[in-house]
Design brief:
3% strand; single chain; two-stranded parallel sheet; 2 domains; 2 strands
Length: 238
């Protein structure tokens, strides 16, 4: 959830309530003005008085909680590892109150310290369930490819190649597929698997992970990369 996403979520929710009379508007009560300072559309034409500075943050958090709790639908958060502290604070409040279901996805090896701290608190609250997703095997990868492509023109070797080169990582698979579609959709049927470039999004992910390694581990990776590149060149010369 990038910075400011909480504000967009509130705007979206307010728009839905406005255009769907059958839905009950959030019972904000005295907290309506607090939320209007963040989202003026909630109280157009009004200029809420500034509250006591010591109460601004807790009152805003209460207003946001009431908005999200007014709906029966769960809140879905993707890429939790990138969430900003303010948005995480809102989610932590909702988790503590236990009135709304939260569903979040994160890359475990990219979780920051402040997110891990929040997860530990959520675990201690007793209504927290973690599901570790296993890497995709060839049949699962093939099913994913069939699901996201508009035709059955995907080469049968695709799934096997993606599993071997990504370790079954669906992010790698989807980004590679998207990159290839943008370059040449016809290549899906007869791709030159040896010439498929690594998408920039995947490169950035790998670079972030490498930077978190120790200096010794980074040097070992660089050495391994040089050895592998030399081996590939010798193979090409044969």
């Amino acid at each position: 959830m990038p910075r400011g996403s909480g504000r967009r979520a509130v705007r979206t929710d307010h728009a839905v309530v406005s255009f769907a009379p059958e839905r009950k508007s959030p019972e904000l009560g005295a907290y309506r003005e607090d939320l209007a300072r963040l989202v003026p559309d909630i109280a157009p034409g009004e200029s809420p008085d500034a509250p006591d500075p010591s109460l601004t943050k807790p009152r805003l958090l209460e207003a946001l909680a009431r908005v999200f709790e007014s709906n029966e639908t769960p809140i879905f958060v993707d890429d939790l590892q990138w969430i900003d502290p303010s948005s995480l604070e809102v989610l932590s409040l909702l988790s503590a109150r236990g009135r709304v279901r939260l569903v979040a996805a994160a890359r475990r090896d990219e979780i920051t310290a402040h997110v891990e701290q929040a997860l530990n608190i959520w675990r201690s609250q007793g209504h927290f369930e973690e599901i570790d997703l296993e890497p995709l095997d060839a049949p699962s990868m093939n099913a994913l490819l069939e699901e996201v492509t508009v035709s059955n023109a995907v080469n049968a070797n695709w799934a096997k190649w993606l599993v071997e080169h990504s370790g079954g990582n669906p992010f790698f698979a989807l980004e590679t597929l998207k990159d290839l579609l943008e370059r040449d959709e016809a290549a899906l049927a007869q791709p030159d698997l040896d010439q498929i470039p690594i998408p920039r999004s995947v490169q950035q992910l790998v670079e972030r992970r490498v930077k978190r390694l120790s200096e010794t581990a980074q040097r070992a990776l660089q050495a391994a990369s040089v050895v592998r590149e030399g081996s590939r060149r010798r193979d090409c010369q044969r």
